[in-house]
């Protein structure tokens, strides 16, 4: 496993230095999950990540609301329509990234009768205007990093399987309930406070709602085919409302306000749990998640590892910057995990008190391990 600070995509949103998200690697779950907050989907910059308070009973302070310029966008380049003049009419993949496009209608997209994918990332689009001529063939729309405030303009596009509206100014999820074929839906870094109006999207496999203003997990009961749910960097205080999502394999809920692990009993197929940067003091609540392979509890005020007894299929255990002090407990709780290959304990008292001996002690406690923090300890 490579050094985890390198995010799978280098693209960082120029307007939001704190969080960047990329979906191009969404099928590559072998990417490392970072003990500083990155989980492979939602990257949380070290400078803005929510750290637990010294007093576990203290409240995490609310993120300061952004002071964003709501005024008109800068001047667009002239003649947006010229950008596609040299593209043949039979092109099925239209991509214009960082082109200062403000008016979609000027692109004359109706020319492209076979268009399957439309990517207009990092532009200045405020209103979604896609000709309905493309509705029969268009399956993927990517409008990541624009100036969109309202979800509308998708009424005719019932063939969509992927929709990315991340890094916009959206406050409400609306007018998508008819997109029955949608599998991947991305709303990272918007202004959404309520999960709503998704009931009809029963084919969804993945939802990304990281870096919003969500306080409660709700209105997901009908999405029984969901396999990945990304809720990092919100304001959630309790895990609930997931009992019907029995196909869920990945749950990311790091950088929230959780004090306990609860509401996971029915998620028997869960393989990855990313729950770092919360206020957890215990690992109780995982007894029924026997298929867990990857768990990240980093940056929680956890002192003990009891609660892992049933997790016999663990391959990666991330616990950096907690309050773990006993190698004997590490051995007791993890030595029997025969499939365990990677552990992260940096930043714990057991590492800080004797840094020179730390790796050797981990190797003695867990002889099956192949990687300690970012260092391989034996040839794979």
From TrEMBL:
Residues 62-80 have a biased composition (Acidic residues). Residues 22-48 have a biased composition (Basic and acidic residues). SUPFAM superfamilies: L domain-like. Gene3D superfamilies: Ribonuclease Inhibitor. The keyword DNA repair does not apply. InterPro entries: Leu-rich_rpt, Leu-rich_rpt_4, Leu-rich_rpt_typical-subtyp, LRR_dom_sf, SDS22/Internalin_LRR. Pfam families: LRR_4. Coiled coil: none annotated. Keywords: Leucine-rich repeat, Repeat. Transmembrane segments: none annotated. Residues 1-80 are annotated as: Disordered. This is Protein phosphatase 1 regulatory subunit sds22. The gene is SDS22.
